[in-house]
Amino acid sequence: MDDQAAVSPRAGFWRRAVALAVDSLIILLPAQLLVALLFFWTNGEIQGNFGIEAQNCVATTFPVGLQTVISNPTGVVDCRKSLFGLDTSRVLIVSRVTPGDIVTKGVSETFWLDADGQLTDRPGHDVGWAALMLLFCYLLFFEVRTGAGLGKRLMSIRVADARTPDRPGVPIAKAFGRYLLIFAAVIPSLLVQVFFLLRNKDLDSLDRLVGSPIYLASSYGAGFLGLLWLLWMVVAVCRKRDPVNDVLAGTVVIRAR
């Protein structure tokens, strides 16, 4: 690592957290409002949630004639999500909960509702992933160009190349790599879920699987590994040291001059 990068003051946890929150609101808030308008204009055909909306679920009756793979359902709820009173999605969730001696098992099936709360046979489009991709592209673009988006500029921090910290921005491969290494935390859980889904393709076998010791041990074990990965990075940031994702990517997050 460059000597100058080694002595540059690192950005602490709260500066990073506030910067990410500001950048997220800059992208997600207008995107969520746009989805609310599209939800209304398309009568619920386009839906999407980005984690900043309010949710309200109300128990309702089982719709007459609804075909579901859930045998003997124990619950039916109408769940709507909204931002500033504008609906962004609305679904009907049919579920069955089976209490056990140790583990309570549950399965559910989700049906899309239109803007009036009626079941629809039209193929819908969930655009929840689009805003996350837009946020990722926004962060990547500004960090490659200048090292900081609006949130980081507000908090007077920036991402820099560990070898050339005085240079504005970082190479795109390093900027991409540092985020990819953060999301590595979910890889163990994804692998576990894909493995069991491929081995148990029908609902009944999945229902039996959820409470099995091997599934629980695998799921909790994978989640624990992901949590350790994230905690490792958070502890380093709190101590104003380079987290593992920055070390491996060859980047540093420093106080801007």
Q: How far apart lie the N and C ends?
A: 20 Å
Residues in helices, as a percent range:
40-55%
Number of strands: 8
Shape: globular
* Helix-strand sequence: HHEEEEEEHHEHHHHHE
What is the alpha-carbon Rg in Å? 23 Å
Please state the structural category: alpha+beta
Architecture overview:
The chain is α+β, with helices and mostly antiparallel strands and about 260 residues long. It has one domain (about 5-255). It is about 45% helix and about 20% strand. The protein contains nine helices and eight strands. It has helices spanning about 5, 15-40, 130-145, 150-155, 170-185, 185-200, 205-210, 215-240, 245-250, and strands at about 45, 55-60, 75-85, 85-100, 105-110, 125, 155-160, 250-255. Strands 2-3-4-5 form a four-stranded antiparallel sheet. β3 and β4 (about 85-100) form a beta hairpin. α6 packs antiparallel against α8. It is globular, with a radius of gyration of 23 Å. The mean pLDDT is about 85.
Q: How would you concisely characterize the structure shown here?
A:
By secondary structure, this protein is an alpha+beta fold. The protein is built from nine helices and eight strands.
Topology:
Layout: H1 3-7, H2 13-41, E1 46-47, E2 54-59, E3 75-83, E4 86-98, E5 105-112, E6 125-126, H3 128-145, H4 150-154, E7 157-161, H5 172-183, H6 187-199, H7 203-210, H8 213-238, H9 244-249, E8 251-255
Parallel strand pairs: 1-6
Antiparallel strand pairs: 2-3, 3-4, 4-5, 7-8
